[in-house]
Each structure stands twice: as C-alpha cells, then as structure tokens.
Amino acid sequence: MLAAGAFAVPAHAQKTKIHRVAFIATFTPVQELPSNSAVRAFVGRLRELGYVEGRNLVLDLRSLEGRYERSSELLAHIVRLKPDVIFSASQVILERSPGATGNIPVVTLASWSIVESGLAKSLARPGGTITGQLYDIESGIEAKRLQLLRELVPQAKRVAFLAHSGQWDDPDGKQVRAAAQRLGVTLVNAAYKGTDIQAAFAAIDREAPDAVFVAAGPMNYGNRQKISDFVSARFLPCSAGIREIAEYGCLMSYGVDVGDMMRRAAGSAAKILAGAKPGDLPIEQPTKFDFVINAKAARAIGITIPQSMLLRADRVIE
User: Fold this and answer.
1) Distance CA 269, CA 131 (A)
2) How far is CA 136 from the centre of its chain?
3) How far apart are CA 305 and CA 308, in angstroms?
4) What is the fold, at CATH topology level, of the domain defined by 18-137+259-280?
5) pLDDT for 86-135, tens place per residue?
C-alpha cells in the first residue's frame, strides 16, 4: 500500500499563484504613484495580508491624470489584461463607463450616491461586482469644517469656495452654503473645469476673500501642492479636507483619514483575492478623521491659535 501523500507535490515545487491588481488613480501622474502616500498605504496593507509584489502580486498602476473622458478607454485596456481586482479611486470612473469592467471585481472609493447611481443595490449588500469605501459620511462634515475655519479665523467674513465645477451645487456644496449663512459668512464660488485650476486661482485673486475653503474631492487632492503654494504665497488662511494640503502649507484640514481608508480598501481587495464576492462585502463608512492645524502657517499669516483649538487637534504642525 502506498503511503499517504505519496503523490503530493513538494512544497518547493508548487506553483505560486500570481494575482493581478489594477490601481486607477484619477489625477496623480503615473510616475508619482509609487511614492504617493495613499498608494503606499494600499500596497502596504496588501503586503501585510500576504500579497507581495515580485512574489505573488502584480500591481498595475494607472492614472486618468484628470482626464475623465479617458475612463472608457483606460478601463477597456485594463480589462484586456484580465486583473483579478480593479481598484478605482473614484466611482465617477465607473459611472462614466457603466458595465465596462464586466465581471471583474471592483473596489472603489465611493460617495453616498453610489446606490442612487445604480452601481450598488445597497451599502450593506452591494449585490454586483462593485464594493468599496465611502470617502464621505453625512454632508455635515464639510459644514463642520467651515465652522472650524471660522473659529480659527473669526475675522473671515468672505470665504472663497475653491472647487471643481459642479461641487457648488452638489450635496456637500449646499451644506457648506447653508452653514455659511448660519455663520454670517459670504461664500464666493471659485470654480474650475477639467484640470485648469488657474481659473479658480484667478477668481480668488479677483474677489480678494479673507480665507479659502478647499472643497473635498479627487481633483483638489491632485492639485494639493498647487493649492498650498497659492495660499501660502498670498498669506491666505486655508481650510482643506485632506491632511496633505495642511502638511504642504494650508492653515488647517479636517476630514477622513485617507491612509486608513486606503488600507481598508486594500483589505476588501485582499478578501476578493481570497475568494469573497464583492457583492457580499459591505461598502464601509469611514471611521477615522483627522483635524490638523499648521501652526507654522498660522505664524506666517499672523494668526494666533487659541489653546483650546490646539488641544482639539489630532496633529499640530510646527
């Protein structure tokens, strides 16, 4: 009688399954993606979960570089490569090309409109090939951010709303406008289309506001360095929804912890690689938020930050 396992393949001879994950950024240039903190958080979490580049993972980094009109073309190219999972940094990419990903599982950064858009049946049980992470919760988070800016800069009566075209009238924009009325703030729309943020900068220079409120979203995230350079050069108090903009020179930021969100997105991707169906994975709400104050920027502008605000901050940049 043959011993049990006589025909088993030695461990060293077993073929390692190679998993392919496609990562689609919306704005950041492809050459900058490997050093991007959000990408590093995503890749780092995959590594922790056992998916390592050069061993059992091929990570295909792509970017629209702000050109959403390329969504269909880019998705078609990615689908031909037959990835096991696609990560999309914005649900807008999927909305512009419905059905383009076929049966390939997708993890996306989503807004509350993902159900309304038809990409998911519900947050608790998406039901199709798409799951992901919400990057916003109730729109009140943006209104709260305007309130924090007003607490830091009580003299700010006119505030520029620096946003991509359409954000003035979306749910977050309406909430911020309503909050501005309650706070006695005149909100000035400084919008831009495509990737030409200079149009927004020109509007701010023309309107000469007391402060700048940077709307949350992928386009402003992609322009984070330009925005920080702009407000720093003009000594304008600035409120952003992303920590990195504050790190680059904006007065403050308050919003979802992007690193944590990306790690959780990688966790969803890992579950799919292990056999889970995306339609069974809930679209998760954010659980971590950052309030960052840039004390160095405050000193340059000539603002004294109350001690009570410093104590409330998760991080103070000196």
Assistant:
1) 9
2) 9
3) 8
4) Rossmann fold (3.40.50)
5) 999 999 899 999 899 999 999 999 987 899 899 999 999 999 999 999 98
